[in-house]
Amino acid sequence: MKRPTLEVVAARAGVSKSSVSRVINGETTVAPQIRDVVMRAVHELGYVPNGAARNLVTRRTDTLALVVSDPPQGVVSDDPLFSAVVRAVSRELEVAGKRLVLMLAESDQSRTRVEQYVAGGHVDGVLLVALHGTDPLPSALARQGLPVVSFNRTSAHDVPYVALDNAGGAALAVRHLLDRGRRRISTITGPLELHEARERLDGYRRTLRDTGRRSIVALGDFTRVSGAEAMRQLLDDDPDLDAVFAANDLMAIGALRTLRQAGRRVPEDVAVVGFDDIEAASYTTPALTSVRSPMADQATAAVHLLLGLIGGGPSNPVIMPNELVVREST
């Protein structure tokens, strides 16, 4: 059966070919009654637009890139929440009739390939996950004039973003520990070259400073191993500490192991709070109190912001609220 053409649709609808083209390409200047008769003819005939030809007219590819600028050790892509981000982005783009391209930028060479691919006009916009403040990719992509939305704040001030309230979430955790009567509250940070790690440390420090208490800090790298090692360091440095706020759940899980090995009861001797509320947080012994990061909601908001930018909408940043999920570890 011969594929119906634009001319056949126009004849069935009783309008000009140019009117059909404007309806198919989503132009808003078409009268509602014209749009109705054209769409009725489209459905009756089973007309499918020629995507390649339409893209030449609209200069759209209906494809968006999810670019993850991740160091070789995989801080982002190894995060248990990353799969939730990919699923949420895929779901929202499918609803919007868009395709998704996933790209990893782990080195200077791969970042160059990402820049070249985007500059080649293969995508309409970019969703960017780049945690390092010195990462050159956000600025490089923004200079190309293509809509870009970051999953967190970047050093490129012209890149709109959807970010977690990292400092506010850390403050929630510390205030909860204070309300539980804890007085020597330590923290295990993430790698401080990452925005979210610095923001969570700032929230911890500011909250303790407001109560006249000193900070007790050990460095981690968002892995279980680093959490276990940092907890050992904290116990050596301050054996009387009675609480720890870990900047993510993986490090908190490592800290729980060290505390158990050291004969410290949780929460009787040391209370523990994590950040992210990954699935494993509710299965630790004891179950882990954690600051919930609404990653799926963040991904959905980022897609909506990017689609709005592509359509000429505003670029206002979005900050996602956190909530504390209280379990047995505090």
In spatial order, strands of the major sheet run 7-6-8-9-10-12
Q: Largest sheet, described in full?
A: 6 strands, mixed
Percent range of helical residues: 40-55%
Count of alpha and pi helical runs: 12
Derived from helix and strand composition plus strand pairing, the structural class reads alpha/beta
Parts with pLDDT < 50 across at least 5 consecutive residues: none
In terms of DSSP E residues, the strand content is 15-25%
Question: How many E-type strands?
Answer: 12
Radius of gyration equals: 25 Å
**First CA to last CA: what distance?**
69 Å
Overall 3D shape: elongated
The residue-averaged pLDDT reads 87
String of helices and strands: HHHHEHEHEHEEHEHEHEHEEHEE
Characterization of this structure:
By secondary structure, this protein is an alpha/beta fold. It is 43% helix and 17% strand. It is built from 12 helices and 12 strands. It has helices at residues 6-13, 17-24, 32-45, 51-58, 82-95, 108-119, 137-142, 166-179, 195-210, 224-237, 249-261, 295-310; strands at 63-69, 99-105, 125-130, 148-150, 162-164, 185-189, 216-219, 243-246, 271-276, 289-292, 318-320, 323-325. It has a 6-stranded mixed sheet with strand order 7-6-8-9-10-12, with helices on both faces. Strands 2-1-3-4 form a 4-stranded parallel sheet, sandwiched between helices. Helix 11 links the parallel strand 8 (243-246) and strand 9 (271-276). It is elongated. The model has no long low-confidence stretch (mean pLDDT 87).
